Amino acid sequence: MRFSQRIGKRPIKVELEKEKLSTELRNSLWTLIIELVIESKNEDTDRFKREKWTPRSNFFRSIWIHFFKRPIDNLPISHDIYYGQVEYLQAQYEIRKWFYGVEWDLALDFVEFCVNYDANMYSDQFNSILKREMSAYRFVDGSLVEINSKEEVVEIETAIKNSGKFNSVKTHLKRAIELYADKKNPDYRNSIKESISAVESLSKIIVQNNKTTLGQALKIIEKKHNIPKSLKSAFSSLYGYTSDEGGIRHSLLEKNVKIDMEEARFMLITCSAFVNYLISKK
Questions:
Q1: Where is the HEPN AbiJ-N-terminal domain (predicted)?
Q2: How confident is the model at residue 9 (pLDDT cuts 50, 70, 90)?
Q3: Cα dihedral value 15, 19, 25, 26, nearest 10
Q4: What pLDDT is recorded for position 34?
């Protein structure tokens, strides 16, 4: 906390920032894009070798072609001794102008594109800034998702990490995140299906019976691994919510069940936590 906030001259942020980007956050995200993403690509690499494009030129070309989806012939190209390479400063200027002029969600689309361009290697640094500026969004496995607390992020990331040796479990969790985090067309219903399927898949692995149901598997796990009966019953009830006639999995009545972001987030976090719990018990 800064001095001005400690003495009450400036307000203290107490709520997470949703559906907007403060000037401070937008500035900080742009700084990371410059310092981590753009400047990490050595512009001299391959200029006099057989490669047609340098790493930095490739990055700007990718933005033009795959993110902006603009015609390639309006990408600034150098006409000096490095003829054919991208004119970095001009391209960066145009991207910056766009980044500071668009709505918050499009700006975060671009941040997500940059992080995933480098195989998600900078997500921790971006999450640090998002946390510092009290944003409601965090990178989880390469996707920006709305998270209400640090503990929720930890549960989801830990579940993905812990389930690495259980491919089916990890696949379900990653798919649940993708469906939940899709800004243009979120699929909360199927995100919930994937979340509960992660628990079901792990339970089948633990009892070594691929044909059993989650309810049956939990009864075996409860006895074998000393899971409190109340906890088993609670999760069985959640499973029932997704399985009964009014539930999410009942294909004939799917349209009668309203599923919102809150339900999908709750199930993703809860199932991630239960996956961590089952793995620790196993």
A1: 1-162
A2: low
A3: -170
A4: 95
Same domain for 96 and 192, yes or no, is no
Taking only the tens place, the pLDDT of each residue in 170-187 is: 899 989 988 887 767 888
At residue 146, φ and ψ (nearest 5 deg) are: -85, 120
pLDDT number for residue 43: 61
Domain assignment of residue 140, yes or no: no
Q: Considering Cα of 192, then 185, then 125, then 138, what sign does the dihedral take? A: negative
Same domain membership, residue 156 and residue 131 = no
- Are residues 270 and 182 both part of a single domain? yes
Find where tokens 């195989």 sit: 119
For residues 253 and 195, what is the distance between their CA atoms, to the nearest angstrom?
A: 20
Enumerate long-range contacts of 78-87, CB under 8 Å, 24 or more apart: 82/47, 84/52, 85/43, 85/47, 85/53, 85/54, 85/57, 86/53, 86/56, 86/57, 86/60, 86/61
Same domain, 120 and 166: no
- Are 270 and 155 within one domain? yes
Q: What pLDDT is attached to residue 221?
A: 79
pTM of the model: 0.64
Neighbours of 225 (CB within 10 A): 13
Other beta carbons within 10 Å of 89: 10
Q: Which domain holds residue 124?
A: 16-135
